[in-house]
Specification:
Number of strands: 21
Number of domains: 2
Distance between the termini: 24 Å
CATH architecture of the largest domain: 3-Layer(bba) Sandwich
Largest sheet: 9 strands, mixed
Oligomer: single chain
CATH superfamily of the largest domain: FAD/NAD(P)-binding domain
Strand order of the largest sheet: 1-19-15-18-17-16-6-8-7
CATH topology of the largest domain: FAD/NAD(P)-binding domain
CATH class of the largest domain: Alpha Beta
Shape: globular
Bound molecules: flavin-adenine dinucleotide
């Protein structure tokens, strides 16, 4: 079996141990929110009547609410949130706000070859509109459209870069960087070459994005109730829809389910997603000398090209302090029984592995410490990107299954759900991607066996020059392969 660069060039164990000595558990992004962006909102008590009720105050619910009132300022909108606004995936992600609606070009092109060009165009438009909304509404979310750098870190990945480079020939927003050029840009000895896509990704402060969407929505009349878990949904014969919560009820014309990885209120969606846990670290602020030692002046988001990949990015320095580096990914863990459970978040072994890979990537930063470590559940679907639909005579819409790429595409999902509820036929609602539901996951134990076998195969592929074994090839053929 071959070795990866992270095994060949592992840092001393003492460097890793030192880096994690004072690390606290919890999302850096949420910790970093000023108190003014974390207002305590009251729970729902009694009965509320509204036009649209939304379950869940992550990006999907918040974008849907904001878009609803921007489309129609007279529309009354209520959100019920089980815990706090933006506390879940939306408050703990990497903040890569990508244009792709399909979890990467390759995944989209394989599943929807006839409409991939439209999907790419709509995705680019979605990111442009996010940029516009951030500017027009003055959302303070540290939005920076710096693009995404994809470095090859093993020799076999150079051939993949060449293919990509050939496909992108003539695109002024895609730049190929050879070994010297990429290392001059970001000084990592692991980089062999890279592609920099300059327009397809922006970095945001994830928790600020949720908080600012909530603020902008509330300023336009949306009401958010926190600590209000929806426990059921009823669609009376006479029309309308009622969402029952543990403290009350909301009666509305329409409902949107934006509950992501958590159990759906619709039975038909319970087998459509599984939670896969993803882990991240955040460093302390870098000193000017440390910043100088790594370069990274263009501040791109970075995702390496392995099957099991890392994502990393700089934060914005504040109050005279330097930027920090978020480093996450690689291990994505599924637990038998598909439960979302905070106990799965505590994995010192996974954080230690990430820290080791960090110092392989940036050995010149040895001595730096991590201030935060955390994890979050990713709502994986079998098509690795969101699915959409309506239920109960078109009175309820849902979108879920973003599979770790929802920062940008949740806004598109909000548009789709409003189109569907309004009964408006649009370019979005005509998409096969929107009209067709993917396969559900099988029940246990088949789900756990299949997911573990896939991850094992991906790790093996990374140790064998990227070659995919029979299982991955079979999954590819079934449209279930994961390589984007
Ligand atoms: C560690 C990590 C890193 C990631 N990095 C990236 C990245 O860099 N780029 C990217 O594009 N994506 C990334 N993602 C994915 C991205 O964060 C998600 O796709 C996105 O946040 C999904 O938003 P959401 O609103 O659908 O879900 P969530 O943020 O999970 O919100 C769902 C909300 O619904 C509420 N809810 C659930 N059930 C009920 C109920 N019954 N009643 C009331 N409320 C309920 C929950 O409490 C929660 O607040 C990452 C995810 C993780 C975990």
């Amino acid at each position: 079996m071959g070795t990866t660069v992270f095994e060949r060039q592992a840092p001393p164990a003492s460097v890793v141990a030192h880096s994690l000595e004072q690390t606290r558990s919890g999302s850096f992004w949420i910790d970093d929110l000023p108190a003014s962006l974390r207002p305590d909102r009251a729970p729902l008590r009694g009965v509320e009547t509204t036009d649209l009720v939304i379950v869940g105050a992550g990006y999907t619910g918040l974008w849907t609410a904001l878009l609803a009132v921007l489309r129609d300022p007279g529309r009354r909108v209520v959100i019920v949130e089980a815990a706090r606004t933006g506390w879940a995936a939306s408050g703990r992600n990497g903040g890569f706000c990508e244009s792709s609606l399909t979890h990467g070009h390759e995944n989209g092109a394989r599943r929807w070859p006839d409409e991939i060009d439209t999907l790419e165009r709509l995705g680019r438009q979605n990111l442009d509109e996010i940029e516009q909304t951030v500017a027009e509404l003055g959302l303070d979310v540290q939005f920076e459209r710096t693009g995404q750098l994809a470095p090859a870190i093993e020799p076999h990945q150079l051939a993949w870069l060449d293919e990509w480079r050939a496909e992108a020939a003539g695109d002024p927003d895609v730049e190929y960087l050879d070994e010297a050029a990429v290392r001059a840009s970001v000084a990592s000895p692991t980089y062999l070459a890279a592609i920099w896509e300059k327009r397809t990704c922006a970095l945001v402060h994830p928790a600020r994005l949720a908080a600012e969407l909530a603020r902008a929505a509330e300023e336009r009349g949306v009401r958010i109730f926190e600590r209000s878990r929806a426990t059921g949904i009823e669609t009376p014969r006479g029309g309308g829809v009622s969402v029952l919560t543990d403290g009350g009820r909301v009666d509305a014309d329409h409902a949107v389910l934006a509950t992501n990885v958590f159990p759906s209120l619709l039975r038909r969606n319970r087998l459509m997603t599984v939670p896969v846990y993803d882990y991240a670290l955040m460093t302390e602020p870098l000193t000017p000398a440390q910043q100088e030692a790594i370069g990274w002046r263009d501040r791109q988001g970075i995702g390496d090209m392995a099957n099991q990949f890392h994502y990393y990015r700089p934060s914005q320095g504040q109050d005279g302090q330097g930027a920090r580096i978020l480093f996450g990914g690689y291990d994505a863990l599924y637990h038998y029984g598909r439960r979302v459970d905070p106990r799965y978040e505590n994995r010192p072994d996974v954080w230690a592995k990430l820290a080791s890979h960090f110092f392989t990537t940036f050995p010149q930063l040895e001595g730096l410490r991590f201030s935060h470590q955390w994890a979050g559940a990713i709502d994986s679907s079998t098509q690795f990107t969101a699915f959409y639909g309506t239920a109960r005579d078109g009175r309820v819409a849902y979108a879920s299954g973003f599979t770790g790429l929802g920062v940008g595409s949740t806004r598109f999902a909000g548009q789709v759900m409003l189109d569907l509820l309004d009964g408006t036929e649009t370019e979005r609602t005509a998409l096969q991607m929107v009209r067709r539901r993917p396969l559900p996951f099988p029940p246990e134990p088949a789900a756990a066996i299949g997911i573990h076998a896939t991850r094992w195969s991906m790790d093996r592929a990374d140790h064998h020059e990227g070659r995919r074994n029979l299982l991955l090839k079979t999954l590819d053929a079934l449209g279930l392969g994961f390589d984007s």
